[in-house]
């Protein structure tokens, strides 16, 4: 096993806690859960609604993946967290799946939670594999 590489990207979303954007070892890449904050304006209000927040979270995952030479096609598994599960689940699913080609959806778990950092409605982390 190779020593892990800890990736904290200058271009990535500002961390809301002490963590790396991603940690990589032996081709496996674990991405920290991303929030719907704008990397270019981290102090701006969050986008309104689950669809807009899901888009921002997915774009933030792209930023981190691109920063280490990967993209969403390398994602094998996602864990998704929703604060308003029953209300937001259907819209979240429609928005989320639009980021992946037909027939190439990662494995996924979605969990309803009582709260998320920065008052977010959604957070997504993932596992990717370097080819």
What is the CATH topology?
Answer: 60s Ribosomal Protein L30, Chain: A
The biggest sheet, with number of strands, parallel, antiparallel or mixed sense and barrel status, is:
6 strands, mixed
Per DSSP, what share of the residues sits in E-state strands of 2 or more residues?
25-35%
- Average pLDDT value? 96
Number of helix segments? 2
What sort of overall outline do the alpha carbons produce when their principal axes are compared?
globular
What is the strand arrangement across the widest sheet?
A: 1-2-3-6-4-5
Compute the number of strand runs. 6
Uncertain segments: none
| Total domain units | 1
What would you give as the CATH superfamily?
RutC-like
Order of helices and strands: EEEHEHEE
Distance between the termini: 16 Å
Q: Structural class of the helices, strands and pairings?
A: alpha+beta
Question: What is the helix fraction of residues, given as a range?
Answer: 10-25%
CATH classification class: Alpha Beta
Named CATH architecture: 2-Layer Sandwich
Rg from alpha-carbon coordinates: 14 Å
Explain this structure to me?
With 131 residues, this protein is an alpha+beta fold. The chain has one domain (5-129): 60s Ribosomal Protein L30, Chain: A. The protein is 24% helix and 27% strand. The protein contains two helices and six strands. Strands 1-2-3-6-4-5 form a six-stranded mixed β-sheet. Strand 4, helix 2 (85-97) and strand 5 (107-112) form a beta-alpha-beta unit. Helix 1 crosses helix 2. It is globular. 30% of the residues are buried.
């Amino acid at each position: 096993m190779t020593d892990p590489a800890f990736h904290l990207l200058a271009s990535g979303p500002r961390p809301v806690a002490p963590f790396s954007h991603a940690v990589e070892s032996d081709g496996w890449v674990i991405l920290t859960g991303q929030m719907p904050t704008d990397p270019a304006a981290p102090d701006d209000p969050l986008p309104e609604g689950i669809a807009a927040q899901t888009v921002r979270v997915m774009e933030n995952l792209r930023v981190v993946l691109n920063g280490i030479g990967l993209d969403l096609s390398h994602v094998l598994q996602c864990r998704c967290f929703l604060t308003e599960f029953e209300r937001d689940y259907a819209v979240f699913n429609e928005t989320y799946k639009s980021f992946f080609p037909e027939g190439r959806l990662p494995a996924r778990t979605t969990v309803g939670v009582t709260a998320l950092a920065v008052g977010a409605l959604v957070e997504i982390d993932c596992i990717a594999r370097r080819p």
